[in-house]
UniProtKB/TrEMBL annotation:
Gene3D superfamilies: Aspartate Aminotransferase, domain 1 (3.90.1150.10), Type I PLP-dependent aspartate aminotransferase-like (Major domain) (3.40.640.10). InterPro entries: Aminotransferase_I/II_large, PyrdxlP-dep_Trfase, PyrdxlP-dep_Trfase_major, PyrdxlP-dep_Trfase_small. Residues 46-235 form the Aminotransferase class I/classII large domain. This is Aminotransferase class I/classII large domain-containing protein. PANTHER family: AMINOTRANSFERASE (PTHR42858), LD15494P (PTHR42858:SF1). GO terms for molecular function: 2-aminoadipate transaminase activity; pyridoxal phosphate binding. It comes from Aspergillus thermomutatus (Neosartorya pseudofischeri).
Length: 353
């Protein structure tokens, strides 16, 4: 009988022991609906290899690409990205290359933004949806905002702007510190607050912020000197709707905008990476995940992984599971959902007996 050792995920608000030993009674193959990486069959390995060989055969690319290069990134690449983004968003003014910075990825770019536009001695709080992308928590804390992350409640339209406005106004009475830790630079502006969001298909809830909430968010940011960071990694990954324009997008852009090209280039699903389900009472996410692994060899995500650290009032953790659809193939996805159904039915029947 195989033994599976699970380590409690970081930022869990659970007070249970750090290590949880689960005995898997099932001899069936494991199905992983927790892993958020794209399936290896979807990775465009050969296409990227061919592109690299082609690019490195050009002297103008190798000289700047293998040397230090410009701080903002390879200029021809930035120019091409500007043209691509202009064609997609169709803004009133053309997007220029000097508004684009190329980094190692969206998470690294988030760290860069915090280094330039925040100062822990002057920036008060990081505001984010009550259920947020969990790998962003550590980035904010490493930037000096440990214990200064604040959760904003959500509904089907996104973050509650009335709640956020009250919270920002309440904090506005706090006196600002005269001196900061960072040297003044021409490119630097220190904001009093940071508002982080994933506007389209938010991870993990799948919520897309409505147009009126986006407009309200911009007004609040201007009123309270807040930097809005849109971690829009899923913006290109959706299907066209009949009421939208021909490219399926009618929002325009909110800056600073962090766009992760990896999500577009990996050839993964074009509609959704996962789904969050609410459990019927009195079932809890922790108990269901333990039983699913032990009885059905099925791995699913516990909702408390996405709770903003320090948010003691959230009921999100015990009520929801996250099912991710990018790692397993379609047959295993269907089988995984079937196994989860068996676990839930058994647990509900036990509650009735």
């Amino acid at each position: 009988m195989p033994i599976r050792a699970l380590v409690d995920l970081p930022y869990s608000v659970s007070t249970s022991s750090c290590f949880l030993i689960v005995l898997s009674m099932s001899s069936t193959p494991c199905i992983n609906l927790l892993k958020g990486s794209p399936a290896t069959a979807r990775l465009p390995t050969q296409r990227l290899s061919d592109a690299a060989v082609s690019a490195l055969s050009k002297l103008e690319v190798t000289v700047t690409g293998l040397d230090y290069g410009p701080d903002e990134g390879h200029f021809p690449l930035r120019t091409h990205l500007a043209e691509w983004l202009t064609g997609y968003y169709k803004p009133s003014q053309l997007i220029k290359a000097d508004r684009i910075c190329v980094t190692g990825g969206a998470s690294q770019n988030l760290s860069n933004i915090l280094q330039v536009f925040t100062d822990p001695s002057q920036t008060r709080y990081i505001w984010m949806p009550q259920a947020s992308y969990h790998l962003g928590f550590r980035i904010f804390e490493d930037a000096g905002f440990y214990r200064r992350l604040r959760a904003v409640s959500e509904d089907e339209e996104g973050m509650d702007m009335e709640f956020l406005e009250r919270a920002l106004a309440k904090d506005g009475a706090v006196a600002e510190r005269a001196e900061g830790y960072k040297h003044p630079e021409s490119y630097r502006k220190i904001f009093k607050h940071v508002i982080y969001c994933v506007p389209n298909f938010s991870n993990p809830t799948g919520i897309t912020i409505s147009l009126r909430r986006r407009e309200a968010l911009v007004r609040l940011a201007r009123k309270f000197n807040a930097l809005v960071i849109c971690d829009d990694v899923y913006d290109f990954l959706h299907w066209p709707a009949t009421h939208c324009s021909d490219n399926g997008n009618s929002w325009g852009s909110i800056l600073p905008r962090v766009v992760d090209l990896d999500r577009t280039l990996d050839g993964g699903p074009r509609d959704s990476f996962g789904n969050v389900i609410k459990l019927p009472q009195p079932l809890t996410a922790r108990n269901v995940t333990e039983r699913a692994l032990r009885e059905e060899n099925l791995m699913v995500g516990n909702g408390d992984l996405f709770v903003v650290p320090g948010d003691q009032f959230s009921t999100y953790q015990d009520q929801r599971l996250r099912l991710c659809f990018v790692w397993e193939n379609e047959r295993e996805l269907a089988e995984g959902v079937s196994r989860l159904e068996k676990v839930l039915v058994r647990m509900l029947n036990e509650e009735k007996s």
